[in-house]
Design goal:
alpha+beta, single chain, about 900 residues, five-stranded mixed β-sheet
Length: about 900
């Protein structure tokens, strides 16, 4: 799969970079110089090689530092297919200390990696009058914006048209003239630093960096470290930053734009700043800044290892491909992942922001302080961050019961992905840079890896886990590590062979099914790989049983075993083990079903059991009716996470009968009856000091009731919509549901007004709600208009959000064919916009997710088969083939049963 590429670090080992950039925002161009101090190792040669991509190299000079003598260069060559800059000499270059000085320039391009522009609008009256930039302690002097902070920087300041029912076409104030603004930002992970300066762009090539930026005056300029000096000359500002710690190139970062911030300090004195463009009100940053302070303090204590920098900046970028990026000391986020309205609080938005912040701050240790040597151990960064983020949130917000959320999100994601033969293992080999972006599978490297670490922590114990992690940091700080380094530290702290437990899970794709057969006073356990698309060799996993009773076997690492037990035993009751359980005897299954309905097993166990039944039904080892039987007995279920799982069961049933109008109506009737008692108990108004669970449960129940087309619910949602002048004033937690009701059951003319608001508002939460609402449209003509104006060529949806619109439109049976037509007709443009990025890899995934008929399978295969040669797409296309095929077979088996089930 792809070519092998020799790592430059084997011969070139940088120790320090001196970087200077001159940024021209008007012309979207930059020029720069870099001095790279490095140690040449290995055999003598006549060339020195660095990474570079699409840079115009102007000059290059090579100096032998040990001899203080210039090495005469014969030619400078750019090897495009390998992204290499080769400095050739006619004389032999021997091992030793050298310095390369290179000047270059390049265009700033729109794809959201390397150095790229972010676009936003600000009031014309908010002119820059001076620039003091960012101070060395992270504070910004921005007096010129103070008068505008709450008055014109609100997302509610856009022009609007008044709608017939009184709902404003903006988020607030009227007729404010706007101007276009641009900020520049970097995104260097995974291997995009080479697009901005010549370097050794490999994680093992750690060095220190000294950065100087020459920017237009009037902009705030930020980087990984505080600024140490600023000089203004005419209309230019030169900012010099303190030298960074030793770190990898992919963690270097800088931004320049019209920004403002709020600031606080941790109890250890670390300055925390949260920044956004001046188009955003400062109050929208308050929640994120307070969370960052608490979270950084938590990790400092939990890891028993100090945060290594003096400041930590968080920046909300208007355009950003991924959710966030952990650049050391300068973390970048999507606006929706950092900004939220304190005057109209959405608990789910706040939880999302807290989760992203916890993930990125944990990376300041896992990934930044200690970095994987090569991308095949990406999971050392991402799996750990995806696990410990939940530890932090569970500790900081105990009333959220965060492990329930973890199961309904991460556990379900990996369990429903890791069931196809072409899925990648957590630890995946990489031989060519083109393969790197294929590694960032959120369900595997993030969610599955995190689940495996949770399993391991429960197996060795919390104290051993924390002690081992502390030792891992102490031994490998400012260095690079491999998985063996982590296993060594954890084995020493736990007095266990952690490598033997974890290595099969990390290196092997897939997950096992644990079959449990109760026979008299014995229980027989057996294991095999659970696959929906073919057969596999018979691997054996070391399964941590995590049973509800003490057993003579804690770790099951054989094909089968018999255990003495007079009573039924339940396994994996908190969902920490990466396996599903198939209870073969009817009595145990019935006991479990009763326990779920009576809430006598943990919430996590209730969710896991329902998901296990779904997976077993997909493999013809159970039936979805078994899960539905449990669901209909759970009207009194109090936990929102379980209701989310129940909704998933019903949603799958809908998908398997899609197109049969009578069956669909019967399911809607089922939903109406299911939701009614809980909605009556909760009511429509949030109560003072309400439990967070009830706040989230109310939204879920109303969504279930709306899906059931309950008339009272529809009327109430339409009434709420008409009751406000400004969409931003709709209850934030219910806003998406309200807009979905308007689009499906209200006046279809409202769609134009909603799209107009989306295009003009800066409020990321409001944009998200409108996207979720309008993509519920059922009218074909309106659906076509939505696609053309939003994600079509020249549409107003930012590239970062296109995949979300597409996924929602594919999920909607009334717009699926329209979304598919857009994808196939616009593929060349989509590939150009997202080429070389992670977003393109999502398209086969979201395309396959709702498809369950042979006709759709044919379309999918005809379109995607020719793309199997694309390394970035190959794996997800193959999994898409398997997923659709398995779903078609499932539908053949289940559809007649489900029609009868809901009819009865």
């Amino acid at each position: 799969m792809g070519k092998n590429v020799k790592r430059l670090f084997e011969e070139i080992r940088p120790s320090h970079y001196d970087l200077r950039f001159e940024l021209n925002i008007d012309k979207l161009a930059f020029s720069g110089t870099v001095k790279i101090k490095f140690n040449k190792t290995g055999r003598p040669s006549k060339r020195v090689t660095f990474h570079q991509k699409d840079l115009n190299i102007k000059t290059a000079k090579l100096t032998n530092l040990s001899k203080n003598q210039e090495v005469k260069l014969a030619r400078i060559n750019s090897q495009k297919s390998l992204d290499e800059l080769r400095l050739h000499s006619d004389e032999m270059i021997y091992p030793g200390e050298y310095e390369a000085e290179i000047s270059f320039n390049a265009k700033i391009t729109k794809p959201m990696h390397g150095l790229y522009p972010c676009y936003f609008k600000v009031p014309v009256t908010a002119q820059l009058t001076h620039s003091d930039g960012v101070q060395g302690d992270g504070e910004q002097r921005s007096e010129s914006y103070q008068a505008y902070d709450e008055r014109v920087a609100e997302p509610s300041t856009q022009q609007s048209a008044e709608s017939s029912d009184g709902v404003s076409g903006s988020a607030g104030k009227q007729d404010v003239a706007m101007r276009d603004a641009v900020m520049l930002a970097t995104q260097f992970e995974s291997h995009y630093a080479r697009e901005v300066f010549p370097c050794v762009d490999e994680p093992e090539a750690k060095a220190t960096f000294k950065l100087e930026l020459d920017t237009p005056s009037g902009l705030t300029v930020l980087s990984n470290t505080p600024s140490e000096k600023q000089e203004k000359t005419g209309n230019r500002l030169v900012t010099s930053f303190e030298e960074t710690p030793i770190m990898s190139t992919y963690l270097l970062s800088f931004v320049a734009g019209e920004l403002h911030n709020i600031s606080a300090k941790t109890k250890d004195g670390t300055v925390i700043n949260t920044w956004a463009t001046v188009a955003q009100p400062k109050k929208f940053m308050e929640y994120a800044n307070a969370e960052a302070v608490k979270t950084l303090e938590f990790f400092t204590e939990y890891f028993q290892t100090p945060y290594p920098l003096s400041k930590c900046d968080q920046v909300a970028l208007p355009d950003f491909e991924v959710g966030a990026m952990e650049n050391w000391g300068l973390i970048t986020y999507r606006e929706v992942a950092l900004l939220t309205d304190p005057d109209n609080r959405s608990l789910s938005s706040e939880q999302y922001i807290s989760m992203i912040i916890a993930h990125e701050l944990s990376h300041q240790w896992f990934g930044n302080l200690v970095t994987m040597k090569w991308w095949d151990d990406l999971w050392l960064n991402e799996s750990f961050a995806s696990f410990v983020e939940h530890i932090a949130l569970n500790a900081l917000h105990p009333d959220w019961h965060w492990w329930e959320h973890y199961v309904i999100s991460d556990v379900l994601a990996c369990a429903n992905r890791d069931i196809y033969k072409d899925v990648q293992p957590v630890g995946t080999g990489v031989r060519h840079p083109d393969e790197i972006i294929t590694l960032f599978d959120p369900a595997i490297v993030y969610a599955k890896g995190g689940r495996l670490l949770k399993m391991m922590r429960e197996f060795i114990g919390e104290e051993a886990f924390r002690s081992g992690v502390k030792e891992y940091f102490a031994k490998n700080a400012y260095k690079n590590a491999e998985r063996g380094d982590l296993w060594e530290a954890l084995s020493a702290s736990s007095k266990s062979d952690v490598s033997s437990l974890m290595t099969p899970w990390i290196e092997r794709a897939g997950m096992p099914v644990l079959s449990v057969a109760k026979e008299g006073g014995k229980i027989k356990l057996s294991q095999e790989r659970f696959l929906l698309d073919g057969e596999d060799e018979e691997p054996i996993w070391p399964i941590a049983l995590l049973a509800d009773k003490k057993l003579p076997v804690k770790l099951f690492d054989k094909k089968s075993v018999e255990i003495e037990s007079k009573e039924p035993v339940l396994f994996n009751t908190h969902g920490s083990g990466h396996y599903l359980v198939d209870y073969n005897d009817k009595a145990t299954r019935e006991k479990l079903a009763k326990a779920i309905a009576q809430q006598s097993i943990p919430t996590e166990g209730r969710i896991i059991r329902l998901n296990d039944i779904i997976l077993l039904a997909k493999a013809d080892r159970s039936s979805l009716s078994e899960a539905l039987d449990i669901v209909k007995k759970c009207q009194a279920e109090p936990r929102e996470a379980v209701w989310s799982m129940m909704s998933r069961v019903i949603g799958l049933a809908k998908m398997l009968v899609e197109g049969d109008k009578q069956a669909e109506e019967n399911i809607r009737k089922f939903q109406r009856g299911l939701a009614k008692p809980t909605l009556a108990r909760l009511g429509w108004e949030k109560k003072p000091d309400e439990d967070p669970n009830d706040t989230l449960l109310r939204q879920t129940i109303i969504s279930v009731s709306l899906a059931g087309e309950d008339k009272e619910t529809i009327d109430k949602l339409l009434e709420l919509y008409k009751s406000v002048k400004d969409l931003a004033d709709l209850p934030a937690e219910l806003r998406t549901t309200i807009l979905a009701a308007v689009v499906r059951f209200g006046d279809v003319k409202e769609v134009d007004k909603l799209l107009n608001i989306y295009e003009k508002t800066n409020n990321a939460d409001l944009k998200s709600s409108i996207c979720g609402g309008v993509t519920e449209v059922r009218d074909e003509a309106v659906g076509k208009k939505i696609i053309k104006s939003s994600i079509g060529d020249g549409g107003f949806v930012r590239p970062q959000d296109i995949f979300r619109w597409f996924a929602y439109l594919m999920r909607n049976q009334y717009t699926r064919h329209l979304a598919w037509s857009w994808l196939t007709a616009d593929w060349d443009r989509i590939s150009e916009v997202f080429g070389g990025s992670k977003t393109l890899d999502y398209m086969p995934v979201y395309s396959a997710a709702p498809l369950s008929t042979a006709a759709w399978e044919k379309k999918y295969k005809e379109f995607f088969t020719p793309m199997l040669s694309n390394l970035a797409l190959e794996r997800n296309i193959k999994i898409g083939f398997s997923e659709i095929g398995a779903r078609i077979e499932w539908r053949k088996r289940e559809e007649p049963k489900l029609k009868k089930y809901f009819l009865d």
